[in-house]
Amino acid sequence: MKRLFIVRHAKAEKNEKTSDFDRGLNVRGENDAKLMAKVILRTIEDPVVFVSSTAKRALQTALIFKKAIPKAKIIENGELYTGNSSTILQAILSLDDKFSSAFIFGHNPALEDFMANAVCNARMATTSVACFEVNADSWKEATPQDLRLVFLLRPSLFKKEK
Prior knowledge:
The protein has helices at residues 27-40, 56-68, 79-82, 85-93, 110-117; strands at residues 2-8, 48-52, 73-76, 101-106, 129-134, 147-153. By secondary structure, it is of the alpha/beta class. 39% of the residues are buried.
């Protein structure tokens, strides 16, 4: 069974002097990405592929996850930065079937639109991770209706209240 992970990039710095595309992660974002990578580590089956938007904050999030999952291959996809639900689906359909687990690192509103098409209306806060089982033998045959939500996690679920 294949698993698809939808990941919204971690919290980015607010810098008016930097373009939106070039905004990097802030300290909270880095810490949240490390936390979420560690939390989901046991749910991943090898081999693993990461498909990431080329925006700095999304790539940084993917690279932090890669430290926890070193065998993962990273594919950069520039269309995920300004794309939509269809762009995400196209990225999934283009995956090699040798990968058992696939991660899409992207942005809202495209991620939430994709989730809604998978009959899962959910808010994707920064560094949220949604895991789906894919009811298809091949990535090339997968549709949003073939996805079954296994879990949706956000960093706030694992932080102690002050």
